[in-house]
Specification:
Layout: E1 2-6, H1 14-26, E2 46-59, E3 62-76, E4 86-93
Protein name: Alpha amylase domain-containing protein
């Protein structure tokens, strides 16, 4: 199991702020809405606990492994996609 805690973003990118200010000049009613969801600092960060299961096989100098997992708990900040499952595999040759 692993625990990941990703903090919120602090501050701003001046280039993104320029675009948002331009939109505010053109459409004053949109002043509180970022142009893109990923430009909103509230849409970053969260917490997740992942549960893993994996197997590996070794024969001579060759090693093959596969590991899969699902989030046992997750809480994301704002508008973000959640994780449903994940899988990792690998092959190693030792010499």
């Amino acid at each position: 199991m692993t625990f990941t805690d990703t903090g919120r973003i602090r501050g701003q990118d001046d280039e993104i702020a320029k675009i948002n200010n331009l939109v505010q000049d053109i459409m004053p009613g949109m002043a509180n809405f970022p142009v893109e969801p990923d430009a909103d600092i509230h849409n970053y960060g969260g917490e997740r606990i992942d549960a893993f299961f994996g197997v590996s096989f070794t024969k001579g100098a060759l090693s093959v492994g596969i590991e899969g997992g699902i989030p046992a708990y997750q809480r994301v900040n704002g508008l973000q996609m959640e994780t449903d499952w994940f899988i990792t595999s690998g092959i190693q040759v030792m010499f």
